[in-house]
């Protein structure tokens, strides 16, 4: 509770009603509304009070009579107290002789009120008293003299009041004199009436005349029925008034109407501005706002019957139609982002588009995706196929296209059928959509397979700039696989995925085949440098087997990485015909080596000029043989063990290949033996036939004949030749040659019809020496043949052998120890 | 309500006199409410009352701020009659107001009929030294001649504002105590009678 307000200052402290009074004090409240009440001398002045501050209020004094407290009441402080008093003055007429502290308005306020008794009231005792201010207020008088009055003319006139009021300070002597004066005046008054008339004769007569005139006029009027006139006048004025009133009423009504119209217009400003607003927002692309506005308008005015609203609505509908058309165009303007398309669909749905925008979008998107594939395909198809990179770029393009656009289509479809787009779908649309997806995939598969598989210009023709197809196949497969992964990710129906899987499988099979074929080509192209390679384990091979091995390993690596690396795509392996064909191709590939190796031996004279460094046929034979054995023994074994295509390595193919190689080996060996043994045989033949003539000569057998030496030298030469290529071949080749030579020798010996003793002995020695020499080649049938020959010769002998053959042989061996050392080295 | 404090605590009635615009109201408002009113608005007659502690005694001071303008000269007598002490104010920047103090002094003496009525000659606006027209000596001489104190004040800076009111109250108090002692012998005086009557009422 705040302290009670206290008034301790007032300015001014007296005044007439309406005086501006400044009240000062304390605790007048904190704000204007705290001021609850203000009375000055019990008169409420709150109405005119102006709260200035906690210490100051300004107000106008009311109709106050006499002194009184100034009481301020505040909201929190309650009714306050007053230390000062306000003296309310009354509006009194003041005589010219009366002293006044204020400026007196001399014109009487009430003009018809004249002083009741001129001079009498003021000073009936005839005492000119200076100080007759009423020091006692009227209220105090009323307390002292209840029911009385100080007025002369009043019935309740109280002489005491009158004297106190007017002559409070007059001395008793003066009052007595006053009484005498009054008595004298009362006496005089008896004569006063007559003297009054006397003094005012002419005005009185005037007055009488006037009265008479008035009476006459009144009586005259009485007969002209003044009341009727009055009535008529009243009626007229009444009519006029009604007319005026009606006019005003009409005017008011019109004003009201137009104001209503204006109000309506401004209230529905929104509606009427909307078309322009829509146009503007269409330009800005702020469709959300348009939709909001449109929905609002539809809610507000959709069911209106007012024609102007209908017109406005119609206009708005037109705008919306335009917008819808524009949105439809936008919707089908590809490429378009999926989110954007969905947004447009949402707009169209919100705009109450009559058509199924989402379905249109799906269809158009389908057409877009499908057409793009076809377009790319046609573009590619019209190109010349010289450019192999185009194929790859087509695959890349079409895959990129599908990767980019297909998910959108699928997502759109999913959204549509899930009801995310707030559109209800029909059942048949589901199958139609499936058909779309299917046709896209089919289109894609057809395009790809046409280009890569079915076409004569397919993958098999692709050649990269460096001629290595291996780098391209993984790319192509990777692209197709990315589509497959996409479909898996999108959770497409199995039939769709299967379509692609089928394509992928076919493509893989095709690729594998192509790769094999390619490798075959490549193997065929391996150049033979005839440089002998030496290694710790295998010596005497050329580059070819190594290259061959490398190529096979490379291709297997490529196949494994690019085709079988993906999990869950083992469809290729499950396809038995595919496996069979792979095996076939694999075998073909392996056996290419045979062909190639054979070819190396065939070209004899034609290419000699081209390859000046080409070694002799004998050497080539040896090298090829060595290669062949290397491939058979090492390469194939390695492949068998290490090869990993991702599918089982066909053992059959390897063994076939091995078998083929073995055959080839035999062929080469035979050829080489033929080549090598022929000269030796010729030597033997010639010597034996030549010397047949001399069979009769009798020369003591002291030495072996030169042809044997020649033979042995030939052997040593062969040995050297083989040894330069490979030690391993020595065991294979030399015994065979020895065998062939011995066999031929045997034949020749057996064909000799006649032989003298000496000749037989000589030949026996020769053959013994040869046998001794050839015994350096183990596991040879040569010895058998030579034994036969020796037996044959012995049959020609007439006498037992007398000479010391062993000695001769020893001697010769000693002489030819170099040759012996040569072959015994191994 | 107004009677109660009259019974319990002494009430000293002070009247501010002086020419128009010398700062009577300014001094009063500064004393009462510690505020300095810049704008000039002629006063008619304002009443203020404040409880103050005078030398350890609770007293009430009743200030009647009168009109300085000549228009109201006629009603001054009435006011003067009720006053127990007077602050006669002039502006040190205006010689006319200083001259007018003579007239006020005479009128007060005539109405009160008392040479020793508590009275202070106050030269206001002491902050406006550069506009000074009435010298301190001049004013001091006049005060000496009248046998009253002379104080220079500034309603703006509050210099000596409290002093003049308190000095005057002390004089009034001294004067009342003296009167109480010699109450019997002085019953003749007309004003005295009337005042007593008022207090009773």
TrEMBL record, chain A:
This protein's name: Exocyst complex component 2
Alphabetical keyword list: Exocytosis, Protein transport, Transport
Functional note: Component of the exocyst complex involved in the docking of exocytic vesicles with fusion sites on the plasma membrane.
Domain Exocyst complex component EXOC2/Sec5 N-terminal intervals: 122-822
InterPro entries named in the record: EXOC2/Sec5, EXOC2/Sec5_N_dom, Ig-like_fold, Ig_E-set, IPT_dom
PANTHER family in the record: EXOCYST COMPLEX COMPONENT 2 (PTHR13043:SF1), EXOCYST COMPLEX COMPONENT SEC5 (PTHR13043)
Pfam families named in the record: Sec5 (PF15469), TIG (PF01833)
Domain IPT/TIG residue range list: 5-86
From TrEMBL, chain B:
Gene Ontology BP term (one): signal transduction
Pfam entry (one): Ras
Gene Ontology MF: a single term: GTP binding
NCBIfam families tied to this protein: small_GTP
The species this protein was found in: Brassicogethes aeneus
Gene3D superfamilies linked to this entry: P-loop containing nucleotide triphosphate hydrolases (3.40.50.300)
Entry membrane topology: Lipid-anchor
GO CC, alphabetical: plasma membrane
Name of protein: small monomeric GTPase
Protein family membership: Belongs to the small GTPase superfamily. Ras family.
Annotated InterPro entries: P-loop_NTPase (IPR027417), Small_GTP-bd (IPR005225), Small_GTPase (IPR001806), Small_GTPase_Ras-type (IPR020849)
Enzyme Commission number(s): 3.6.5.2
Origin: domain of life: Eukaryota
EC top class, as a word: hydrolase
Keywords: Cell membrane, GTP-binding, Hydrolase, Lipoprotein, Membrane, Methylation, Nucleotide-binding, Prenylation
Major site of localization recorded for this protein: membrane
Keyword Ion transport carried by entry: no
CDD domains for the chain: RalA_RalB
């Amino acid at each position: 509770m705040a302290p009670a307000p206290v008034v301790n200052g007032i300015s001014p402290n007296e005044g007439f009603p309406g005086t501006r009074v400044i009240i000062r004090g304390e605790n007048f409240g904190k704000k204007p509304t705290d001021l609850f009440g203000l009375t000055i001398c019990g008169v409420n002045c709150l109405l005119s009070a102006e709260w200035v501050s906690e210490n100051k209020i300004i107000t106008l004094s009311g109709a106050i009579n006499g002194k009184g407290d100034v009481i301020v009441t505040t909201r929190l402080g309650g009714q306050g107290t007053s230390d000062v008093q306000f003296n309310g003055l009354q509006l009194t007429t003041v005589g010219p002789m009366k002293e006044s502290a204020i400026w007196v308005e001399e014109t009487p306020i009430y003009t018809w009120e004249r002083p009741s008794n001129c001079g009498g009231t003021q000073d009936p005792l005839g005492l000119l008293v200076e100080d007759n201010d009423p020091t006692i207020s009227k209220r105090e008088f009323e307390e002292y003299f209840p029911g009385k009055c100080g007025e002369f003319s009043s019935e309740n006139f109280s002489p005491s009041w009158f004297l106190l009021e007017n002559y409070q300070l007059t001395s008793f002597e003066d009052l007595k004199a006053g009484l005498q004066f009054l008595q004298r005046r009362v006496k005089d008054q008896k004569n006063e009436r007559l003297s009054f008339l006397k003094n005012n004769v002419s005005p009185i007569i005037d007055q009488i005349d006037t009265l008479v005139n008035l009476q006459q006029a009144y009586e005259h009027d009485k007969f002209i029925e003044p009341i009727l006139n009055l009535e008529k006048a009243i009626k007229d004025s009444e009519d006029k008034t009604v007319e005026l009133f009606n006019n005003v009423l009409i005017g008011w009504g019109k004003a009201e109407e137009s104001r209503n119209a204006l109000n309506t217009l401004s209230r529905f400003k929104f509606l009427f501005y909307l078309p322009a607003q829509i146009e503007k927002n269409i330009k800005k692309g702020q469709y959300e706002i348009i939709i909001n506005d449109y929905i609002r308008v539809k809610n507000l005015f959709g069911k209106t019957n007012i024609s102007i609203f209908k017109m406005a609505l119609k206009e708005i509908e037109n705008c919306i139609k335009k917008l819808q058309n524009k949105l439809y165009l936008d919707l089908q303007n590809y490429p378009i982002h999926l989110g954007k398309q969905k947004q447009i669909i949402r707009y169209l749905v919100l705009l109450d588009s009559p058509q199924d925008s989402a379905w249109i979008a799906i269809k158009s998107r389908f057409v877009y995706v499908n057409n793009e594939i076809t377009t790319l395909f046609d573009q590619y198809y019209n190109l010349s196929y010289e450019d192999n990179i185009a194929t790859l770029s087509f695959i890349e393009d079409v895959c990129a296209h599908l990767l980019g656009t297909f998910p959108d289509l699928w997502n759109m479809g999913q959204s549509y059928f899930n009801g995310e787009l707030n559109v209800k779908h029909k059942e048949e649309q589901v199958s139609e959509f499936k058909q779309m997806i299917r046709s896209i995939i089919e289109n894609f598969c057809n395009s790809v397979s046409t280009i890569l598989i079915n076409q004569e210009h397919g993958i098999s023709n692709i050649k990269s700039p460096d001629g290595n197809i291996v780098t391209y196949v993984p790319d192509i497969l990777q692209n197709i696989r990315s589509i497959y992964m996409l479909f898996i990710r999108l959770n497409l129906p199995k039939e769709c995925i299967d379509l692609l899987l089928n394509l992928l499988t076919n493509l893989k099979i095709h690729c594998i085949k192509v790769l094999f074929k390619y490798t075959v080509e490549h193997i065929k192209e391996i150049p033979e440098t005839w440089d002998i390679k030496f290694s710790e384990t295998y010596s005497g091979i050329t580059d070819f087997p190594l290259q061959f091995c490398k190529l096979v390993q490379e291709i297997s690596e490529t196949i494994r990485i690019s085709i079988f690396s993906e999990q869950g795509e083992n469809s290729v392996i499950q396809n038995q015909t595919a496996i069979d064909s792979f095996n076939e191709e694999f075998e073909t590939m392996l056996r290419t080596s045979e062909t190639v190796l054979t070819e190396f031996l065939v070209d004899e004279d034609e290419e000699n000029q081209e390859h000046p460094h080409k070694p002799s046929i004998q050497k080539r034979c040896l090298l090829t043989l060595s290669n062949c054995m290397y491939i058979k023994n090492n390469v194939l074994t390695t492949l068998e063990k290490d090869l990993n295509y991702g599918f089982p390595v066909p053992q059959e193919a390897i063994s076939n290949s091995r078998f083929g190689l073995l055959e080839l080996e035999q062929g080469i060996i035979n050829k080489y033996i033929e080549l090598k043994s022929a000269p030796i045989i010729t030597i033997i033949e010639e010597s034996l036939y030549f010397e047949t003539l001399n069979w009769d000569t009798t020369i003591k057998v002291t030495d072996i004949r030169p042809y044997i030496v020649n033979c042995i030298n030939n052997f040593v030469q062969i040995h050297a030749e083989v040894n330069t290529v490979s030690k391993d071949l020595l065991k294979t080749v030399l015994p065979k040659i020895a065998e062939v030579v011995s066999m031929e020798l045997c034949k020749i010996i057996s064909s000799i019809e006649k032989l003298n003793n000496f000749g037989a002995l000589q030949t026996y020695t020769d053959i013994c020496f040869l046998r001794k020499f050839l015994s350096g080649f183990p596991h040879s049938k040569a010895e058998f043949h030579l034994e036969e020959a020796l037996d044959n010769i012995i049959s020609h002998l007439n006498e037992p052998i007398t000479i010391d053959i062993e000695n001769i042989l020893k001697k010769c061996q000693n002489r030819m120890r170099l040759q012996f050392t040569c072959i015994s080295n191994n | 309500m107004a009677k109660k404090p009259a019974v319990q605590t002494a009430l000293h009635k002070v009247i501010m006199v002086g020419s128009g615009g010398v700062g009577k109201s300014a001094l009063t408002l500064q004393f009462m409410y510690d505020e300095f009113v810049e704008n000039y608005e002629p006063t008619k007659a304002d009443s203020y009352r404040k409880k103050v502690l005078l030398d350890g005694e609770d007293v009430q001071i009743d200030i009647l701020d009168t009109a300085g303008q000549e228009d109201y000269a006629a009603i001054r007598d009435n006011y003067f009659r009720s006053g127990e002490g007077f602050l006669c104010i002039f502006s040190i920047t205006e010689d006319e107001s200083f001259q007018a103090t003579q007239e006020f002094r005479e009128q007060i003496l005539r109405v009160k009929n008392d040479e020793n009525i508590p009275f202070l000659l106050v030269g206001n606006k002491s902050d406006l030294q550069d506009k000074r027209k009435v010298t301190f000596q001049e004013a001091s001489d006049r005060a000496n001649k009248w046998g009253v104190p002379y104080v220079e004040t500034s309603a703006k800076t509050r210099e000596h504002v409290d002093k003049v009111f308190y000095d005057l109250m002390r004089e009034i108090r001294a004067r009342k105590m003296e009167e109480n002692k010699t109450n019997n012998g002085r019953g003749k005086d007309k004003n005295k009678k009337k005042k007593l009557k008022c207090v009773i009422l």
